[in-house]
Design a protein that fits this description.
By secondary structure, the chain is mainly α. It is 73% helix and 0% strand. The chain has helices at residues 3-21, 31-40, 44-53, 65-68, 80-90, 96-108, 112-137, 140-152, 154-159, 166-186, 189-203, 209-223, 228-255, 263-266. α3 (44-53) crosses α5 (80-90), α10 packs antiparallel against α11 and α11 (189-203) runs parallel beside α13. The longest helix has 28 residues, at 228-255. The chain is flat.
Length: 268
Amino acid sequence: MSKGLIILLLLIIAAGFFLRINNLSERSLWTDEFFTLFDSSGQGSDIDNLLGSFSVSGQKKLMKAQDFKPFLKVNPKKNLKDVTRSLLETGAHPPLYSWIMHGWMNIFGDSALALRFFSLLMGLISIPLSFYTGIYLFSKKAAIFSAFLVAICAFSVRYSQEARAYSLVMALTLASCIFLLRFEKYAKNRDAFLFALFSSLGLYTHYFYPFILFSQFIYFSIIHARETVKIRRFYLAFLGSLLFFSPWFVPVFLRGYNFRYAEWIFGY
């Protein structure tokens, strides 16, 4: 890559940073971001039990702001085991983002700026990742346009300023696409393994990630239908990503997913 192209990419990343850092901590946390704080601090099931106690039939006591106060900061007594147990009990989300944020908050604190800054970093990482995706798919010009689009896109900027898993999903999706395209081009086992790894990390991040993985499956199956050896290796990588995810999926499946946590989906 030429020096001029590197400088241009760095300027695009810098523009993306300034768009994302602007007013990052001016807004207070909103409902879902509070649940990031609850889940990542290992208190998700505790807050769920509290909310449940106020929804009992015949309950006349009103919930007060002070009832939530103990949950609005990191509890030093909670560890990753508590985070995992809480997520399994509530069944709302897979654990990777909450695991990362648990360690992140223990280092950087639980302010709005600290909670959102990880998403900002994932949004910035997505800019060069989109550049390399464009390189493998089309050309250097298309790659620059792709990076610029991700840097300024309203949705990309917005989710890079939110303490939720969406920015991480975007980065993992782009990484899995890069290694899938590299495998498509070079047919190296290392790229197939990294595709499976990043795909499994995507599955560990959001329950909607299977839609992305399934679209990649359809793409590769159609484009390389006649390349028997290559497509078999891709299928092994695809199954590998599912296998990596099975330690989480199996207990969630046996327990049963609580669809009331995703009821907003069906509202559309």
